[in-house]
Amino acid sequence: MSHRSALLRPLSAAAVTAVLVGGLAACGPKGSGSSADSAPHKGGTLTVLDQGTQSDFDPARLYTTGGGDVPSLVFRTLTTRARVSGEAGTKVVPDLATDTGEPSANATVWTYHLKPGLKFEDGTAITSADIKYGIERSFAPELSGGPPYFRDWLVGGASYQGPYKDKSKDGLASIATPNATTIVFHLTKPEGDFPYLATMSQFAPVPKAKDTGADYYKHPVSSGPYEVVENQNDGVQIDFKRNPYWSAGTDSQRKAYPDRIDYTGGLDASVINQRLSTSAGADADAVTIDTNLGPSELARVRNDKDLASRVATGHFGYTDYLAFNPKVKPFNDIRVREAISYAINRTSVVNAAGGSALATPATTFLPNQKAFGYTPYDAFPAGATGNAAKARQLLAQAGYPHGLTVTLTHSTSDSSNEGPAVASAVQDGLKAAGITVKLAPIQDSDYSSTVDSVKTEPGFFLAGWGADWPSGGPFLAPIFDGRQIVANGANFNSAQLNDSSVNAAIDRIDAITDHAKAAEQWGALDKQLGQQALTVPLFHPVYERLYGKNIRNVVISDWDGRVDVADVAVK
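^ thats the sequence. predicted structure below, dont judge the formating
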């Protein structure tokens, strides 16, 4: 993942990694009543149309969490998300395991037991050794691409090189398998969020005898409701059919209505939305996972009753914001940062991001969702259009009675919320406070590597962050934990904050295994950090997704804001 999160910058390119959203509820098909026509049925072929591709379709290399996307059709994990719309979909539930994990008293040891009757696509039993081996493969250098948590969290993970180089009998000793249905993880530090990590594709079982190394992506062995028939051009086109050994009796989350699923990636966004709008032939049975409706498309759709009934709204924990580097003048002066915070015109910024249908104004760094610990606050009340008088007052105190000039770095991508439109809106909005903003565009392909490097990080730039799972930990820690500052690599702690009290608070909350209690503490920490004006939260994006006219049972949870392909049905 290109990271400004583990699950990312807005597509076009999240090139990355993913597409996200921020907000609250979700909706399914408008016509999903009790009639036979609207009820989901088994059978048929589902078509998936995406901008991105399913490259490196290997559970070790993927960066997916929670389930609900294409890999979850094939790869089951110890836990997954609850496959329901809205806030309830942010909860972790068992998948291959009987529960979400049994923590030790200090949350440094997590134990899981497998459900009975689990089988691979060839009918062989899934064991704890298969899950251990699947995780160990993700440490192999030739299978890189997955998340960093395993090296950080598992004892011995920092130096482990995977099973291809390590020929020892026990492999990574911090993953123990006392019997075929039990697996135990020993962690370097308390981690109350471990059940969320256990939703990642690296927890999918891989039978050692069927491992083909770097070629495994061509036909990975399925533990889910579908198996790969053919993978063309490294994930551009993948055909799936039912896995005859998958049992709904062991999987309450994936409905698996269609008999087959045809996936096509590498398409243009306008082509995808046009095909879904027209819904001709197989496109009537189609959905998209990564393609949003833009402002002009959304306006057209809303004027068409039929199309409007085929739009689902998704929300994901993501915040677009202005980042400061306090090591660069004049941003080393908190009064300057506060002045900009007061001066910001969020109305113009939201309009630049597509309007209120596609963006919600933000005054907190945490997304406005309960699962993250959202606690409403506004440290520097700017109103809808900015508080120019308060900003001028602070600038005068900082030694700039006649205003000042600053440079704002942004991406050149027109499809990114870090691009020219939002940058120009910030520029225009700060004028009233006497702040002249010079725009400094950087080619989109070089943007992340520039702003996420301590060596090249500018003083003032557009950024965005989304969490790998719906919790305050993966949202606040990468941005504000001083121990996560990376001197020679991708660094997301833009303010380069290294406050021992903040670091200690993060450790304390990490150890809490009760998610509701932890969320409350994350919210309090967010409010505390907000007083330091290290960022200016701008908005949380909202995603509007069109789907084909024959699609039923649309589920979009607040976990990642995407259509759950394992739950949709075709008419």
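Confidence is low (pLDDT under 50) at residues 1-36.
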